[in-house]
Amino acid sequence: MSELPGYTVAPIQEDDVDEVMTLLKRTFFLDEPLNHAVGLCTSETDPCPELEDYCSHSLLEGLSFKAIDSEGKIVGVIVNGVCPLKEEDGNDLLTQARNCQNPKFQRILYILSRREEGARLWEKFPEDDKLVEIKVAATIPQWRRRGIMNILVKKTEEATKQRGIRLVRLDTSSAYSAMSAERLGYTCVYTAPYKDIKMDDQPIIVPDPPHEHDCVYIKKLFD
């Protein structure tokens, strides 16, 4: 656990899961550009089991972190997990999209599957078989612009290095997240305009401006 001005950063524990998920339902579920564009969740009480499973799946791998205020309330989180550079057939995103019963979440999965095929990380980094992916990052509004995300990303990178994994992946659908990734030293290895990501000659999802590009960023932590 580390002390910072106004808040403390520590790994997410089992007892934190409910509070973390509540924070995400109030922020990421509603605000993330793809979620917002398809109307995936219209309020914090609007359920989306698929997104809840995505966010909670890797919470307790020991790589996810929280920022807590002086009263012990969680004000920011970063959810990370170890992922292969290429999923096995049958567990890939395209298969998941085809099998998804939620039409709104299905559209997001189709975007993610195009992202995976476009980035082709297994070809760009053939010496690696896994990486740590920053899956979700969120801060409650009144605690934004205080450097919380920068610290949570730094903690992620430290934990990744400790496990001997040299790549951290950060995907961005938000223009603001893309700018943050570049400030933090991440390199864009894939980008595509949402208007050009199509199915049946129609864009799958086009978020509101300025969120116009789908991007994948990678940071190599050591050689």
Automatic annotation (TrEMBL):
Keywords: Acyltransferase, Transferase
GO molecular function: aralkylamine N-acetyltransferase activity
PROSITE patterns in UniProt: GNAT (PS51186)
Origin superkingdom: Eukaryota
Catalysed reactions, semicolon-separated: dopamine + hexadecanoyl-CoA = N-hexadecanoyl-dopamine + CoA + H(+); dopamine + acetyl-CoA = N-acetyldopamine + CoA + H(+); serotonin + (5Z,8Z,11Z,14Z)-eicosatetraenoyl-CoA = N-[(5Z,8Z,11Z,14Z)-eicosatetraenoyl]-serotonin + CoA + H(+); serotonin + (9Z)-octadecenoyl-CoA = N-(9Z-octadecenoyl)-serotonin + CoA + H(+)
EC number: 2.3.1.87
Protein name: aralkylamine N-acetyltransferase
Organism: Parnassius apollo
